[in-house]
Amino acid sequence: MRFGFNFWLGATLTALVIFAGILAPWIAPFDPVFNADLMNSELPPDATFWFGTDAQGRDVLTRTLYGAQISLTVGIVSQLINSLIGVTLGMTGGYWGGWWDDLVSGLTNVMLAIPSLIFALAVLAVLGPGLPSLLIALGLTNWSWTCRVARSSTLSLKSQGYVQAAKILGYGDMRIMFTQILPNMMGPILVMATLGMGSAVLSEAALSFIGLGIQPPSPSWGSMLTDARQLIQLAPWIAVFPGLAIFLTVLGFNLLGDGLRDSLDPHMRTRKP
Amino acid sequence: MTAPILRVEDLHVRFSMSGGSLFGSSRHMLHAVNGVTFSLAKGECLSIVGESGCGKTTTALTILGLQQPTEGTISYRGQPFTGPNAPTRMQRAKAVQMVFQDPYASLNPRQTVRKSLSAPLRLHGITAASEIEARIEVMLKNVGLTPEQANRYPHEFSGGQRQRIGIARALILEPEIVVLDEPVSALDLSIRAQIINLLLDLKEQLSLSYLMISHDLSVVEHMSDRVLVMYFGEVVESGGWQQIFQTPAHPYTRRLIAAIPNVDDRISTPPNPKSRDLIVLKNAEFGTDTRVTPDVFRPPSQSKLIEIAEQHWVRISSV
Predict the structure, then answer these.
(1) Mean pLDDT confidence for B180-195
(2) Is the dihedral of CA B101, B102, B103, B106 positive or negative?
(3) B139 to each of A163, B95, B118, B176, B199, how far by Cα in Å?
(4) What count of CB pairs under 8 Å joins A to B?
(5) Torsions phi, psi of B17, nearest 5?
(6) Which residues of B touch A168 (CB under 8 A)?
(7) Which of B93, B108, B124 sits opposite A168 (nearest CB)?
(8) Mean pLDDT of chain B
């Protein structure tokens, strides 16, 4: 399988963010929460504080590195929940058809009609802010596209000879779905999940920005932006670095997803002379 | 000829087609298969021929249990194959298997040949690794492949080799009946003869019964013992292959046979002048004007099968 430039750029960016998150406790120069020192507040970037300091005098570099942990956790866990729900509903709906398919398709259309961020807000309003509720809120609201892709893939795979052959050989429905259909639609599902991680990181930042996501003093990129909002003209570095981190992470996931799609889908593959 | 192992009696399959607009819906019944009756004996190759959409594939799917009949019964060795006492998929699998038309779509691209062949054995309770291995080895040799090729994926094989794998998969559970759905029509002309001969050899060797669906009459002529001609859901003629190919009675059968390309036939002659003399029935008596497409949404017109020679049946209008 050949991977293009997009894939490798996306993979590099994603790998950087993952390493930053995992290695944060060792490579970050300060403690993300407890090194607050008002004597050092709002210092511009210098040799000690590479990314400057925020209003409480905390190191922006340290908090940005730790922020990767939260963003990645949210991106990966919420997307796992989304894929699980989407694939289960879409695959069974497409395979069995009938009333169950009507129900799944109807539910998917309803979910697509509700703006997912607003729905996530409603879930968070019920569950209260915090990381676990954020994971649930984002995990329950973004499965509709995955479900559609899983359903349509199942519909087209269902008529393939090898699925019919499996039926004739006596395979049960569940066994057919897991051994014949699921492995053959992993490509598009993986692409959807990777692209979804990017949007989940953005949603996390947005929800934390309006105060419903990660609560201070935990270092989330979204809540760092909230803190920076009032100081954006006096100390722009407090906003620029977490903003840049969000940008590069989402770009990384999107490029990775695009690159995966290009190399997994033969129809999208560009032919080189 | 021994006693039949599979009997299909008065099989009807109708599909409900709902359509219409917001103001009033209409329901049509599509008559896919209308009163098809036949039996299949052990060691026999019965071919169902006819054009696309004539119901031959639907008939086969009903036997395989992938389609429920609207009316009629199918029995296998005296046991019902349809209705409330129908066997489960697992039980049916050991009786009937299928070889598919398209060797590229009929193998799971993510499974090696070994996996494709061992999974059904495991599913049917054969768990000893040595036995599975032995059976795969024998089966691959039977279909003309080497045991070393078992670790490869389908995309590493050619079309003909894939069809051999498809045949191996159909035979791995040792079924008695194999449905061949256009088994060679997707293959290169040079490979066809090899696969046809392989199928004929396997039939002898494992005493299989074949139910072949085809519109390629040259293959049918070569392989079949008996032929069933279907036209818009009905059997219009049935008989031994010699009867069908040498003395076709129904105008539709004649047209089918006339359509076989023949390299020796440079001057266009009627397909078989002799047959005209033998059959005394006139075209009008068949009730089926093959120049007009029948309406599949209407129940078929009154007609019946009559025996014009021993075991040679043809449909005529009974109105």
Answers:
(1) 90
(2) negative
(3) 21, 17, 11, 15, 13
(4) 67
(5) -110, 105
(6) 64-66, 89, 92-93, 96-98
(7) B93
(8) 84
Kindly tell me if the per-residue pLDDT of B303 is higher than 80.
no
Task: Count CB atoms within 10 A of the CB of residue A192.
Answer: 26
Nearest to A135 by CA among A76, A182, A51: A76
Contact A43, A30 (CB under 8 A): no
Instruction: Identify the band that residue A52 occupies on the pLDDT scale cut at 50, 70 and 90.
Output: confident
Residue A273 pLDDT exceeds 90: no
CATH superfamily for domain B4-18+28-95+175-317 = P-loop containing nucleotide triphosphate hydrolases (3.40.50.300)
Who among B89, B109, B123 is closest to A184 (CB)? Answer: B109
Q: How far apart are CA B252 and CA B230, in angstroms?
A: 9
Q: Is a pLDDT exceeding 70 seen at residue B25?
A: no
Question: Which sign does the torsion angle of CA B139, A182, B185, B217 carry?
Answer: positive
Residue of B89, B107, B179 for testing the chain A interface, max A β-carbons within 10 Å = B89
* pLDDT for the residue numbered A235: 84
The nearest alpha carbon in chain A to B65 belongs to A168
Q: What does the pLDDT look like over B207-254, one tens digit per residue?
A: 999 999 988 888 898 899 999 999 888 898 999 988 888 888 888 888
What mean pLDDT do residues A157-182 have?
A: 93
pLDDT of residue B285: 53
Does A169 lie at the interface with B, CB-CB under 8 angstroms?
yes
DSSP-assigned letters across all residues of B148-215: GGGGS-GGGS-HHHHHHHHHHHHHTT--SEEEEESTTTTS-HHHHHHHHHHHHHHHHHHT-EEEEEES
Q: Which of A153, A164, A169 to mutate to test the interface with B (most CBs of B within 10 A)?
A: A169
Beta carbons of A120 and A203 less than 8 angstroms apart: yes
Q: Do A164 and B98 touch (CB under 8 A)?
A: yes
* B123 and chain A in contact, CB less than 8 A: yes
Contact of B163 with chain A, judged by CB distance below 8 Å, is answered with no
- Residue ranges of the domains in chain B? 4-18+28-95+175-317
Q: What pLDDT does residue B315 have?
A: 83
Instruction: Give A269's pLDDT tier (boundaries 50, 70, 90).
Output: very low
Nearest to B81 by CA among B57, B61, B54: B61
pTM, entire model? 0.82
Domains and CATH numbers, chain A: 5-25+61-264 (1.10.3720.10)
